[in-house]
């Protein structure tokens, strides 16, 4: 591509085209979003599936597959463990072959996971099916980073939130279908959305960021204009992206004689990469500890433990899913108005306060009589906590985790952060039932509230603001670069 484009204020004629209608551009972006949402819908069912599978396995009246509590908890958490392996498979594809191939791979693996689960006839097949699905846990970061690269700065926040709404829809689908379907039937139904995701991904262009990183600037320009049009703002963002990657290619030439081991060692010691991984590890731990996954998987068990009523627990789970979807829909608007830091620390503090209140209320109800008649008080507090967390800390944390990785190290960052994600995820699903058994629901909420408090305290010091900034602007800020023209463009 003509370097003149990136070294002068005026753009050459090949790029100066009539702006496309905004409806067309939005339609193209939504086409990419649709694939992420279909994958997230399937992932939502996968995360919530233990709430349907475990009761069936543990039921003494079951005529199907049976298991003890230890086996059931391992089946629930095994996909988090296999997710670690998945990141070592998916991250090299992500960085070396592109965003499109890795998204196809993730969805194909999920497809085979659902088929195996739907046809499982013994515990071994259940373990295998959940382990296969676990390989796609990396899809959480892969899909998030991919969507952030394909969307504009102004749309990135609520696009990420819409993706999270799809996870909520998946959970609601799982809990609702459980009223009329068996768990193998639910697994069979989930083959449909993941099949559509595979088909739609085949029609994508490759990510402009990936193409620029690989020095394929002509293809980068075509893909970028296909997604964002040719407005002045889009052309400036394209110029900024390619200039940065040209600079990186010049730096690479100076180190091309180094061995692969030394290059890898340099990557591991890169300050911006380590800072980004640390930030993502902290926001991921916040997501896990504030209830994102343990409530999806074990809310029925928690509510039954508190109320002693299975019907209250079942309907409470469905209400929770509806509130989750509502909360994420609200957060689509909220995340466009407020800064990331304001939402993370403001609503994060409210979330922590509610977790401590829930802990105190459960302890009081267990040891004193004056709350014993208020059956719905604690379930309502839990649902309120889930709602507030889903409006603020959860969608913002997910959005931040897709924004702070430097492009040059995005594959390695995704791998390192993904390993942390799968460890936290597996530990949460494995340890939550044990914590409830040994410390009670009250103690469990106290421990998780302290973890969230610790993470937010560190993030308050090190987290930059990312709202309405291009990924390149965020990367420059992480590197400590000052770019006046970039700031003017953002404003």
TrEMBL record:
Its record classes its membrane topology as:
Multi-pass membrane protein
Top-level taxonomic group: Eukaryota
Question: Where in the numbering of this chain does the Major facilitator superfamily (MFS) profile domain appear?
Answer: 28-467
What is the protein's major site of localization?
Answer: membrane
Looking up Gene3D superfamilies in the UniProt record yields: MFS general substrate transporter like domains
Residues that span the membrane, as ranges: 30-52, 72-90, 102-121, 186-204, 276-300, 312-335, 342-364, 376-400, 412-433, 445-463
From the Swiss-Prot or TrEMBL record, state where the protein is found.
Membrane
Q: Which GO terms describe its cellular component?
A: membrane
PROSITE patterns this protein is in? MFS
Indicate the segments annotated as coiled coil, or none if absent: 232-271
GO molecular function terms noted in the UniProt entry: transmembrane transporter activity
Keywords, A to Z? Coiled coil, Membrane, Transmembrane, Transmembrane helix
Name of one Pfam family that matches:
Sugar_tr
Name under which the protein is recorded: Facilitated trehalose transporter Tret1
In the record, what lineage is assigned to the organism producing the protein?
Eukaryota, Metazoa, Ecdysozoa, Arthropoda, Hexapoda
